[in-house]
Amino acid sequence: MSDRRILSLWFPRLGAERLIRRQPVLGDQPLAVVQEQSNAQIITALNAVAQGQGLQVFQPVRDAHAMCPGLLTYPRSLVGEARFLESLQRWAGKFSPWVAPEGDDALVVDLTGCAHLFGGEVALMQVVEDDCTDLGLTVLMGLADTRGAAWALARYAGRAAGSDRTGDAIDQEARATRSRAGKRRHWTKGGAAPVVRTKAGNTDRIALPGQTYGALSPLPIAALRLEPEVTAQLGRLGLRRVGDLLGQPRAGLARRFGRGLVMRMDQAMGSAPEPVSPAKPPDHFAVRMTLPDPIGLAGDVMAGIDRLLPRLCEALKAKGKGARRVALHAHRSDQGIEVVEVGLARPSFDPERIRPLLQLKVDGIDAGFGIDMLRLVAVQVEPLHEAVVVGHLQAGEAVQARLNKTNTLDDLVGRLGARVGLDAIRRLHPSDSHIPEKSHTIMAAAWSEPHEGPWPVPNNPRPMLLWPPEPVHAPAVPRLPEAFRWRGQELTRLRALGPERLAPEWWLDDPNWRSGTRDYWVTDTSCGQRLWLFFGHGGAMSPGWFCQGSFV
Fold it and tell me: DSSP letter at 104?
C-alpha cells in the first residue's frame, strides 16, 4: 500500500471571487463572469448570491438575465485568473513544496509526510478552509491516496448518483438493459431519480489510507474524470456509481469505451501512476557581494558594480533573457538599505549598456556610516535572442551599422529615462484619421518601435503646434474676418489660405467636435503669427470662430 497523500483544492467561484476581492461592493449583488463560446455568451463563474437565485455555470447569459434581471456580468480574463491561481499556488506552498495547478480553477498538493506539521489531516484542512475564508474564497477539498480520488472527493463528496434522463428515454432502452437494471436496488432502476446534494464536512472528504475503494464507490461515475459522452453511455447501461463500474470486467469496458476509461479507473485506485509535478518557479536574477570593510565613495560603489554586473549579465545571457529594469541595493552598516533603479529602452544583457545608467544614480546614494553589501537585481526581464548576421561582407556591415544606430538611440532613451523617467519620453506614430488631433498616436519611446518609412504627407498644411480649440472673438459668419481678438491680442489678417472643410466623425460623440462641420484657414497676421483658424458651423453648439494651432 502506498503512503502517498494527495490534497485537491477546488475553487468553484474563482473567477467571480477574484472580481469581488478587487471590488468588495460586488459581493452583495448577483455576479456572473461570462465568456463567448460558439457565438454565444456562456457563464463561467458565479458568486454565492447568483447561485442562490438558481443560476448555473455554463448557462447562456440570456437565460440567466431572464431568471435574474439584476444580474451583473463581467467578461472573463483568462490572464487575470491564471495569475490569481499562481498567487494561490504560492500560498499553498506553506503546506507542501509539491504544489501544481490542476485546470483553470484548482490546485493539487502532495501532502506526503507534511500533515503532522499542522496537527494531522483534519487540522490541516481546517487551516486551509480558514485561510480561504480570510481571503474571501470558496474552496472544496478532497484528501486521498491518489490524485484521481482526491479530485473526485473535492467535487462529488456527499453527492448521490442519479439519472438525468426522462421516462421516454428510458422506455427506449433495450429490454435486456432494463431487466438488468431491475435486479439492482430501486434507486438504480430506469426511472428518473433526482440528484441529492448533501453538505459534506472535512471528515467526509478524507479517504483514510487504504480506503480509496470504499470512499469512491458511492460517488457518481463523473467523479472518475470521464468525458460527458462516456458518462452518458454508462448511464444508459445502468452504471451510475463508481462502485458499479469497478465490478465490471475490464476487458469488455476497454473494448467498448476505449482504454481511457480503464486508465482513469486505474489512476483513481492507484494502479496507474499519476505524479504531482510542481510548476517551475520563475527565474530570479540577482548577485551580491559582501564587503570586508564599509565603503562610502561613489568610485568604490562603481568598482563593486563592475564586479557584479558581468556576473548578472552572464546569468541573463545563459537563460536567453535581457534586463529591462535593474535595481541596486546598497546595504548600510546601520541596517538601512538604499535602492536605486534604472530602466532600459530595450532589454539587454550587455554590461556596457547598463553600467552608464547605474553610474548616473550612484551619486544619489546616502552611504551613511558605510555600505557593507551590494546587491544587483534584474527586476524586470524579457526574452532576448542574439541575432546572427549571415550573408555577404557588405550586407553584414550594413546590418551591423543599422543595429548600432538602433542601439545608440536606445542608449539615449535609457540615459534620458534615468533622469526624467522612461514614461516621460514619447514618440509619435501616424494614425489613419482625417481629424487633426487624431492624425497621430503618442506612444512611450521605451516600449515602442520607431515608425518605418516616411511620415504621411497631408493634403493641406498642418500646424507645428496643436491645442484644443480656443474661441476667437469675431463675427459669427462664415466669412474670414479682417480683424479678430484672440488670447487678449488684437490681430489683423494679412493673408489667408483656405478653406479646408472637415466633417466630424458621426459615429462618435466627441465634445471637441460638437461645433459641427469646420472650415479651416491658414491665416497670417500683421504681427508675424501664422495661425490655424476654423469656423464651426454649429452642431450641438453655437457657430463661431476658433483657433486650434500655430505654424511658428
Answer: T
Task: Give dist(CA 197, CA 51) in Å, integer.
Answer: 14
What does each C-alpha distance from 375 to 281, 291, 314, 315, 330 come to in angstroms?
Answer: 21, 11, 16, 14, 7
Kindly report which listed range (166-180, 316-330, 456-470, 514-528) carries the lowest average pLDDT score: 166-180
What one-character DSSP code corresponds to residue 206? B
In terms of phi and psi (left: phi > 0; alpha: psi -120 to 50; beta: otherwise), the region of 212 is: alpha
State the Cα–Cα distance between residues 331 and 371, nearest whole angstrom.
6
d(CA 522, CA 461): 8
**What would the DSSP string read from start to end of 321-342?**
EEEEEEEEEEEETTS-EEEEEE
**pLDDT at res. 171:** 53
Angle between helix axes 250-257 and 228-236 (nearest 10 degrees) is 120
Confidence category of residue 50, pLDDT binned at 50, 70, 90: very high
Distances (CA, A) of 125 to 6, 9, 99, 148, 364: 12, 10, 15, 18, 50
Query: What does the DSSP assignment read for 477-535?
Result: SSSPPSEEEETTEEEEEEEEEEEEEE---TTS--GGGTT-SEEEEEEEETTS-EEEEEE
Closest CA to 204 of 155, 146, 142: 142
> What are the pLDDT digits (tens) for 211-240?
888 888 889 988 898 888 888 888 888 888
How far apart are the C-alpha atoms of 435 and 418, rounded to whole Å? 35
Q: How far apart are CA 288 and CA 354, in angstroms?
A: 16
Q: Write out the H or E segment, with its range, that includes residue 34.
A: strand 31-37
Sequence-ordered list of residues with C-beta below 8 angstroms from that of 396, at least 6 positions apart, any chain: 389, 390
pTM of the complete model: 0.60
H or E element: which one contains 255?
Answer: helix 250-257
Q: Is the pLDDT of residue 134 over 50?
A: yes
Quick check: helix, strand or coil at residue 145?
coil
Using left for φ > 0, alpha for ψ between -120 and 50, and beta otherwise, residue 153 falls in alpha
The β-bridge partners of 220 are: 241
Q: Which residues of 333-350 are buried (b: 16+ CB within 10 A; e: fewer)?
A: beeeebebbbbbbbbbbb
Query: Are 417 and 426 in contact, with CB atoms under 8 Å apart?
Result: no
Checking if the pLDDT of 40 tops 70, the result is yes
Query: Which residues, including other chains, have CB under 8 Å from residue 284's CB and lie 6 or more apart?
Result: none
How large is the average pLDDT for residues 187-205? 50
Going 443 to 446 to 450 to 455, the CA torsion angle's sign is positive
CA distance 520 to 535: 7
Report the distance separating Cα 539 and Cα 510, nearest Å. 12
Task: State the pLDDT confidence band at 195, using cuts at 50, 70 and 90.
Answer: very low
The DSSP bridge pattern shows strands 140-144 and 286-295 to be unpaired
The CA–CA distances, whole Å, from 292 to 298, 422, 524, 525 equal 17, 36, 72, 72
Do residues 141 and 156 make contact, with C-beta atoms less than 8 angstroms apart? no
Strand order of the sheet with strand 6-10? 99-101, 106-110, 6-10, 140-144
